[in-house]
Amino acid sequence: MTQNEAIRSLQTEVTRLRQENQDLHDELTLLRASVRAVRVLQELIDTLSPEVDVLTWIDELLSSALAAVGAQDGSLILLDEEKSELVFAVVHGEARGQLSGHRMPLGEGIAGWVAENRMPEILQDPRGDSRFSPMVDEMLGFRTRSIACVPLVAGDRVLGVIEAINKGSDRDFTVQDQDLMMVVAQLAAMGISRAESFVEES
To answer: Do 132 and 143 form a contact (C-beta atoms < 8 A)?
Structure first.
């Protein structure tokens, strides 16, 4: 190996190590954000009382969930059991103003499939999936690039789903993100069930 080849090889290795270091730094930053978000979620559960506004509480919960997986857009969608419809109770991101309160039939889209089947789902290319409904994207002029969606389940009841859209920095949602969202969903389901019991007691 000539001196020039050795220098080029060394430069390539330095570049690779820098990128690897940056990737590790990014992962550590996300991990720290996830830990903070879960801590906030636990604190939110502890603060839930009959005096707390449930929608405000759900809004804070969704914000923590999205922070935990590094997404800015997402929704907490509740099931209206009487009408078999999913209702966008709280929305974060670009679609917040237009999508809040929007309804769709249970079973429609990825969120509907997750609610109906009680199974989490991650899609890196949702438009290539037959279950994906482009209606919301078309209505809002939005482009869904990736989805992580988990069910909200309390006992034998499905309460709805939490959906994170388009992870930041064009990264893919991971199985670890899904696991974290499942923990968030469990906490959310506990909180929503507790809020329902407050209403029944009043």
So the answer is: no
